[in-house]
Amino acid sequence: MDKIIDILDSIAYEKGLKIDDVENALKEALIKTAQKMVDHTLIFDAKIDRTNKKLVLLQKIEVIADEDRRLFGDSKDEDGNTINSENYISIDAAKDINKDLEIGDFLSYELEFENMGRNAATILSSNFEFRLQRFVEENILSKYKEKIGKTVSGVVSRVDKNESTFIEIGEIKGVLLRKNRIKGEKFKIGDTLKAVVKGVNIDKNLGLIVELSRTSPKFLENLLALEVPELKDGKITIEASARIPGTRSKIALSTTNEQIDPIGAIVGVKGVRINAVSSQLNKESIDCIEFSTIPEMFVARALSPALVNSVKIDIEPKNGEKGKAIVTINSDQKSKAIGKDGLNIRLASMLTKYEIELIEVATSSQSISTLDKQNSENEEKTMDTSTLEALFK
Q1: Tell me, what's the pLDDT at 172?
Q2: Which of 37, 118, 234, 313 lies 20 to 30 Å from 197, alpha-carbon distance?
Q3: How far apart are CA 387 and CA 135, in angstroms?
Q4: Whole-angstrom Cα distance, residue 85 to residue 88?
Q5: Cis upstream peptide for 305 (omega within 30°)
Q6: pLDDT tens for residues 125-171?
């Protein structure tokens, strides 16, 4: 037992645990062992005496009133189990031991752990290791829950038949499911990759595991922060982002510094910053727009490169549901607003949280063209004199 006390600090350091957690694990293990080896209905406690390097096992007995039925062993607890009367002592009997004792106090008797036999040491070791592992898992769970939304990097250790990619991240294993992988990406054992922490779960087969994602808009934001110092310093803020992973994305930017061009800072000289991020996202195209607190203006900017005539907010977003915006647009801008395969309008809707309805109007050039066509038809009708000739014949 003395040796266990000596190595508590070493165990705490190796496992990355607080010394209090290690001591609690040892005390819980000792109590559990005593319940198994002596009597599970008795009340035990454990203390660590660091001064004397001693682990103390105690049996606790509660002082109760003389007439309390728990003294006679025929009363039952809330679960219907018979109460062990050895856990209690009457106040009169307790006063004979210590006259200062009152009802509700406890008497404690030290037990010799060595007298429990050789099996007790094996059981104690097993219980201690189990509780240590529980504290380790709780510690790691807490640590990685704080990292949700942050980017981590690791080395690919395995790719299974479902194309789930397993990554070693320090002391824990991460998994990048196929649905959280950018379309077209493939990884092999030994590859180093970055991903954002999506969640932390405990799998009954794999244990504690971190769920990773490379498709989350947060991953795009984190990569941009690594490339753009103004984002990291808080001089530029990403107000909203939307992605169709590996294809195209939109980000809305704002700044409180009038001397900073947020879009120019993100793009960088000759596009070097934004291209560096795009290359990590399977050549994903990234559109930057300036954020506006005026929803009509924000929707109009989100539909760029299309130019819109007007925006009317029909329904405001609320309770997590999208609002509705009616956008009037010239017919020659409609294809730009919609984009290839509808990507542009989908991203604009995701970015602004508005369902966007387009109302197409004819352009002035089209109106002139239509008028010229009508005039031409009238001229053709005027030049046709066959009807007049028929009258004179």
Answers
A1: 82
A2: 234
A3: 103
A4: 6
A5: yes
A6: 899 998 988 888 888 888 888 899 999 999 999 998 888 999 998 77
Given a contact cutoff of 8 angstroms between Cβ atoms, the answer to whether 90 and 37 are in contact is no
Angstrom distances, CA of residue 104 to CA of 51, 64, 90, 370 = 29, 6, 10, 99
Answer for the pair 330, 359: CB distance below 8 angstroms, yes or no: no
Residue with token string 């352009």: 363
Q: How far apart are CA 223 and CA 245, in angstroms?
A: 14
CA distances from 298 to 157, 239, 244, 349, 352 (A): 44, 11, 20, 11, 7
What pTM did the predictor assign? 0.70
309-360 pLDDT per residue, tens: 999 999 999 888 999 999 999 999 999 999 999 999 999 999 999 999 999 9
Residues 126 and 13: their CA atoms lie apart, in Å, by 20
- How does residue 280 score in pLDDT terms, banded at 50, 70 and 90? very high
CB atoms within 10 A of CB 214: 24
Q: Is the dihedral of CA 334, 339, 340, 346 positive or negative?
A: negative
Report the DSSP pairing between strands 323-330 and 354-361: parallel
Checking if the pLDDT of 204 tops 90, the result is no
Question: By C-alpha distance, which of 121, 99, 102 is closest to 30?
Answer: 121
The answer to whether the beta carbons of residues 42 and 49 sit under 8 Å apart is no
**What residues have CB less than 8 Å from 388, skipping those under 6 apart?**
none
Residue with tokens 């779960």: 201
